[in-house]
Specification:
With about 450 residues, the protein is an all-alpha fold. The chain has 22 helices and no strands. The protein has a single domain, classed as Growth Hormone, Chain: A, CATH 1.20.1250. The N and C termini lie far apart (about 50 Å). GO terms for molecular function: acetyl-CoA transmembrane transporter activity.
């Protein structure tokens, strides 16, 4: 009887090897924490923008509300404390995550009692406090993810980054669709929707309690980097290792010039996407899409597309490297912005919106996975939360400080959305040129 043997091609073997990387329970926890990280952006982003738009605020005013996102750009200032101070319950990482999740729940309950007509100042204040709690939570979540993966494990870091990205978009896109469906299909007001958002966050906080705290001997790692000076008090040594060493170690390890190059690229890469994202909800409403359209396409469809491309992006990074993943994502990012310009010309076409969302979801997922993996590999595990917060804050700076003027830009263009989106596409080009210039250094980080 003839016997048949099947031989896998080298490419299939590589793919199966990459897929096996995901066969680890740690990635489920990373996925759930990613949901918790992305969900608050709904509270102070899409939902708040839609609420203010329905209350009649101008594009400029809504855009300026985005200044509260600047919190994510400055969270590195207090990240050393999150790396050093251990809460009384659940350990260093889980303790901070649970504490901040609980704060977000309480703040959502407070927001549900406000009226944008009469309490606009307090709406902005609570939004700012949610941003602070969320940004602090992100410090701990990023530290948790990096601590879970062995130092120098590029494949594991790429897999963790893809799961974190898929989780983030599940919180932002999947769960983020719920408020818009409720606003269209029920009599729920925007303040009442914040009650539901708080309840969902409470469930995510419960999940945090069942996660396993990563085990890292941080003091041993710190001892290899710096020694306490005998002439200094314990307090001075603690302040030095907590507030100074995490930053000085990053620059001394990479050299000032290269470290600055890494930080500049991280800042530039997503500025165009940030300008687009800040005004997307306002654009959808002005061009004629309903809340249900926004929920179905911008949230739900984008959610599934992003999850698929997050996992695929992780596989590509494992197989071809982070540099290629970043370059592909950057080119596609500019192309997707031009599709939004086409929508501005054609009007509310749901089929064109679906195509645009698919392309935009691909670029958002792919670029985020590559960027998260890249930043994670640059971190020393002794200061994982602090160093990641330093670099991630620069990436977010473009999405917060700079992009807060996006409404002013649209107004200065007399509402010419097409030209606005063309400008956001052009904004991607400098970062791609800079990426090409530092490509050899990025490849070195991948292999070190």
């Amino acid at each position: 009887m003839a016997q048949y043997t099947f031989e896998l091609t080298p490419k299939v073997e590589v793919l199966l090897t990459a897929l096996k990387t995901f066969n680890d329970k740690r990635y489920l926890t990373i996925f759930l924490l990613g949901i918790s990280s992305g969900f608050p952006w709904i509270m102070i982003g899409s939902v708040l923008s839609a609420w203010l738009k329905d209350e009649g605020l101008s594009r400029s005013a809504i855009g300026l509300f985005g200044i509260i996102f600047a919190t994510y750009s400055f969270n590195f200032l207090w990240s050393p404390l999150v790396d050093k101070l251990k809460p009384p319950l659940l350990g260093l990482r889980r303790g901070w995550i649970f504490l901040m999740q609980s704060c977000v729940v309480l703040l959502c309950l407070t927001m549900s009692q406000l009226n944008a007509d009469h309490d606009l100042f307090y709406v902005a204040l609570i939004g700012l406090l949610i941003a602070i709690a969320s940004a602090t939570q992100d410090i701990a979540i990023d530290g948790f993810r990096i601590d879970c993966i062995e130092q120098g494990d590029k494949d594991g870091m790429s897999a963790a980054s893809s799961m974190a990205t898929a989780g983030w978009w599940t919180g932002y896109g999947g769960l983020g669709a719920i408020p818009f469906f409720l606003a269209d299909l029920t009599s729920w007001s925007w303040p009442n929707i914040y009650l539901l958002l708080g309840a969902i966050m409470a469930l995510l906080a419960c999940a945090t309690c069942f996660a396993n705290e990563p085990s890292v001997d941080r003091e041993a790692l710190l001892g290899r980097i710096t020694n306490a000076h005998a002439n200094n008090s314990a307090v001075i040594n603690w302040l030095r290792t907590t507030l100074i060493t995490p930053f000085s170690e990053f620059f001394s390890r990479n050299g000032i010039k290269l470290a600055a190059s890494f930080l500049l690229f991280i800042f530039l890469f997503k500025i165009g996407e940030a300008f687009l994202g800040r005004m997307s909800i306002v654009f959808y409403k002005e061009v004629g899409f309903s809340n249900s359209d926004i929920a179905a396409y911008s949230k739900l469809l984008n959610w599934w597309v992003t999850i698929a491309f997050s996992l695929l992006g992780g596989l590509v990074n494992i197989r071809y490297g982070i540099y290629r993943g970043l370059m592909i994502a950057g080119v596609a990012m500019a192309a997707s912005n031009l599709l939004f310009a086409l929508i501005a010309q054609t009007g509310p076409s749901t089929s064109l919106l679906a195509i645009t969302v698919i392309v935009d979801g691909f670029t958002g997922a792919w670029s985020t996975v590559a960027m998260v993996a890249f930043i994670s590999l640059l971190c020393n595990r002794a200061f994982s939360a602090t160093q990641y917060a330093l670099m991630a804050s620069l990436s977010v700076a473009g999405r917060t400080l700079v992009a807060s003027s996006s409404g002013l830009v649209v107004d200065s263009l007399s509402g010419n959305w097409s030209f606005f989106f063309i400008l956001t596409a052009v904004m991607v080009i400098p970062s791609l040129c800079f990426l090409y210039a530092i490509r050899h250094h990025i490849k070195r980080v991948e292999t070190s």
